[in-house]
Amino acid sequence: MLKKSPKFLLIPFILVLTNCSYVFPVGDNNIDKERETGKLADNFFLEDPDCQNQETERSVGDFSAFVWNSGKVEPESVAIDFEGGLSTKYITSINYGFHQIETCVIKDNEKICDENVVLQSAGKDLKICGAKSYSRNSYEGVAVSTVAGIHKAASFFDSLNSGMYLRKTKVIVLPRVEKQTVDKSNNSVEKTFTADNMAYSPSYMGNPVFIIFPRSQQGIDAGIWKDLNLWELQWGLAHEFGHHIYTKIAKGTSAGDVPLGPRIEEETNPFTDNHDHDHGFHLESSPMATRVNGALNEGFADLFAYYSEGGKDGSIDGIDCFQDSRDLNSFNFADGTPKILDSAAHAQFTSLSKKSTPSDCETPNFAGIHTFGTLIAFGISKIIDASRPEASNQERAKIAVKWIQKVHENDNNAKADAHYAISDLFEVLGPLEESSCNVLSEVFSAYELQLEDAAGC
Ligand SMILES: [Zn+2]
Question: Contact 273/267 with Cβ under 8 angstroms?
Answer without folding.
Answer: yes
